[in-house]
Amino acid sequence: QVQLVQSGAEVKKPGASVKVSCKASHYTFRNFGITWVRQAPGQGLEWMGWIRVYNGNTDYAQNLQGRVTMTTDTSTTTAYMELRSLRSDDTAIYYCARESAGNPDFWGQGTLVTVSS
Amino acid sequence: DIQMTQSPSSLSASVGDRVTITCRASQSISISLNWYQQKPGKAPQLLIYGASSLQSGVPSRFSGSGSGTDFTLAISGLEPEDSATYYCLQSYSAPWTFGQGTKAEIK
Fold this sequence. Notes:
The structure holds two protein chains of two kinds.
Chain A: E1 3-6, E2 10-12, E3 18-25, E4 33-39, E5 46-52, E6 58-60, E7 68-73, E8 78-83, E9 92-100, E10 103-107, E11 111-115
Chain B: E1 4-7, E2 10-13, E3 18-25, E4 33-38, E5 45-49, E6 53-54, E7 62-67, E8 70-76, E9 84-90, E10 97-98, E11 102-106
Parallel strand pairs in B: 2-11
Antiparallel strand pairs in B: 1-3, 3-8, 4-5, 4-9, 5-6, 7-8, 9-10, 9-11
């Protein structure tokens, strides 16, 4: 069964950076993309962007441009999402999901990132 | 950006009922529309992709329809475990956008 396992919860101060990992298993990592989605407490889902694993192409949400970087390591079948210059409104659960032809199908369990002074 | 307007924002129905949730796109998105179910404290789960294709392992009481700008998720024969929040997602063009969500309560 396809599995995406994310790194653990993080607490960061405003202005810091966070890097969330997403370890994929039980499928051919290069053949799919990875999408990142976040969910602020009690709120809906927000698409952050995606990365094509086979060529590294990315597309980021406009409101995160310049602060977010998505990468993958094919040797360890792990995807990463780094968010810089954190603000309090970046407090959210961050999800990775396997993306197949525009369809995020299997999701990680989520990583809570709390930004607080 | 394509806006997705989802309705209703909440619903309450009884076990065995049939309910529908709609999503309207601000421009045509062909059939690039997915539906997700999210339970509290859990990641979203894909129910329907390509507007009407049932994801493997999802009960057949879930169905999707529509194309262009208007889409519907139907749940026939509600079960207690269907209590959740449902979201639509358009993946026609970036930025992909979600509907605001529909919270379903099963009486």
